[in-house]
Amino acid sequence: MKLYDAPWAPSPRRVRIFLAEKGVVIDREHVDLRDGEHLRDAYLRINPRGAVPALELDDGEVLCESAAICRYIEALYPEPSLFGADPLAIGRIESWTRRIEGDGYAAAVYAFRNRSPAFVDRGLPGNWPPVAQIPELAARGMVMWDGFVSALDERLADRTWIAGGGYSFADITALVTIDFAKSAAKLSVPERAKHILRWHAAATARPSAAA
Q1: Strand ranges (DSSP E) for the chain?
Q2: Residue ranges of domains in the chain, CATH in brackets
Q3: For the GST C-terminal domain, which residue ranges apply (predicted)?
């Protein structure tokens, strides 16, 4: 297998953290997003969407989308389980992963894509015709972010990890989201969100966070 990766992008990082937690090593090929390599013919033949990551299997089939890649790896290497080992754990992890993606990550992307001069006419990631920025979406992202932070902080008030039990894919998703929001979208976690800050310190201290 080969993983098409980009060092600073959030979605490939989610896969790298997942692989590190699993102890699985896959050959990687870096795609230079700043140079536009992801939108050139060679990479578009691998992933026509022009997005990273992409996992090329031994038979030539390509899986795109970070969550799908991680699901595939989990099926190949079930232990340690990061998507849940019983029905309730699976449901909790899936529920919180979707909420983190839909509220937190979407908020960061709205803010990042719709107010940065670097993304004029690139309101959507990947291989699209020119898409104008929408300033109202950036404003919406900031509102969504505040709501996401409040809900996640409340969730973490009485537990170590987001879905309960051990570290899971929901925690990986939240760590990548919060770090991306801070570095790219200038959306931070305020000091009042003490439970998130405690959780974030613990998640960042895991060796996998540096993957």
Answers
A1: 2-5, 27-30, 54-56, 62-64
A2: 2-76 (3.40.30.10), 87-210 (1.20.1050.10)
A3: 86-211
Assigned token pair, 170 = 């929901």
Among 61-65, 112-116, 146-150, 156-160, which stretch is predicted with the lowest mean pLDDT? 112-116
CA-nearest of 6, 4, 22 to 73 is 22
* Pairing assessment for the beta strands 54-56 and 62-64 based on DSSP bridges: antiparallel
The overall pTM is greater than 0.90: yes
List CB contacts of 87: < 8 A, sequence separation 6 or more: none
Residue 50 near residue 129, CB atoms below 8 Å = no
pLDDT tens readout for residues 125-174: 889 999 999 999 999 999 999 999 999 999 999 999 999 999 999 999 99
Torsion of CA 192, 196, 198, 199, to 10 degrees: 180
Neighbours of 65 (CB within 10 A): 16
